[in-house]
Design a protein that fits this description.
2 copies of one chain form a homodimer. By secondary structure, chain A is mostly helical. Chain A has 9 helices and 2 strands; from the N terminus they run H-H-E-E-H-H-H-H-H-H-H. Helices cover 69% and strands 3% of the residues of chain A. In chain A, strand 1 and strand 2 form a beta hairpin.
Chain lengths: 203, 203
């Protein structure tokens, strides 16, 4: 298909597709004449993926490029996960965290096989440090409930990945699930909060 | 205490505290002389709260002001929740969503008492629309797992709120929990993903 059709099929403006091409996010089409390239289904799929991770997932173009390179690489899945996780996670300097909050975070994920530099471990410690600094009561039961919820979500993530047929499809799901999962959970938690509030307080 | 002590107690620079005062996020201290104000424990608490929602929660100053006004108001809790939810959620135009994605989102939260304009409902529909556009397999089992996880987290949120002694403390927990809960879950999901990946694929 021509550029115009790629645009109408995906709903992404021609200018944006050209931007993706220039930024190296989208592979070039096949030249059908010196001035005309032809695009296939894999381009449709890729344009939708880029738009999804950028517009809904909130990734920068540089971050989108990193996760797309990871999909196109032959990295083992665990390392593809690592790239996706580091790309969607804010860099946290461990020295900005107090030891007690790290210990609390480690207690919350007791028994989990997690590398000390997992971005989630540091981010959890930072949330715990903040939660306790603002003078909330002991957050341990709250953290524990969230850890159980996160473990259930991670199992669901891996089920999705296991169900895909090959390495490329699995890697794509790693990225999509990592990027969109935060947004899905945040969205559903808002709805669930309204529901539970309504059950408990009426209204 | 003087400004300098408020700064050293909270670890927030004097310039930042003055900025919070100017922006109306922090109430003025009591004037102990024409040029000197005195600050109390409630200022310590409030400075930590502002820093937490801005630096860890990622709120803008305008958004922080909105949630702090909601804490200081006498809004019923359900409405304080609404303010907090709308403040941390991106505005989504319902007309940008296709009907089918909204129906899918409603199916995921079947039986929940949720207002059609709940920001989570629209955000969930947008994630679902994106997930399906990028050619993932039927996401229903993944959405359902996330809905169960979100409901468990919302129950934990409400348990925290119920445990607080009075309206002001409950309202503060509504805001802190809403703002920090997304970050806590995202962090723990990263760690849980590494754990479950390691269990399933070794490494």
């Amino acid at each position: 298909m021509k550029m115009r059709e790629l645009s109408s099929t995906t709903g992404v403006p021609v200018g944006t597709i050209k931007f993706y091409l220039r930024e190296g996010l989208l592979p070039s089409g096949e030249l059908s004449s010196p001035n005309q390239a032809s695009y296939g289904d894999e381009h449709v799929r890729r344009v939708r993926l880029i738009r999804g991770v950028v517009e809904v997932g909130g990734l920068s173009i540089a971050a989108a490029r990193r996760v797309i390179e990871a999909i196109d690489s032959d990295l083992p899945l665990a390392e593809t996960f690592e790239v996706a996780q580091h790309t969607v996670s804010e860099q946290i300097d461990e020295s900005s965290l107090d030891i007690r909050s790290l210990e609390r975070a480690d207690a919350v994920m007791a028994g989990w096989r997690v590398h000390p530099q997992n971005p989630g471990r540091l981010a959890a410690a930072r949330v715990i440090q903040t939660f306790e600094a603002v003078g909330q009561r002991d957050g341990a039961p709250w953290y524990a409930s969230y850890a159980r919820a996160a473990l259930a979500a991670a199992e669901a993530d891996l089920d999705e990945i296991d169900a895909r047929p090959d390495r490329a499809a699995k890697a794509e799901t790693v990225v999509v699930g990592t990027v969109l999962g935060d947004a899905l959970f945040a969205a559903l938690r808002r709805a669930a909060q309204e529901h539970v509030t309504s059950l408990r307080y009426g209204g």
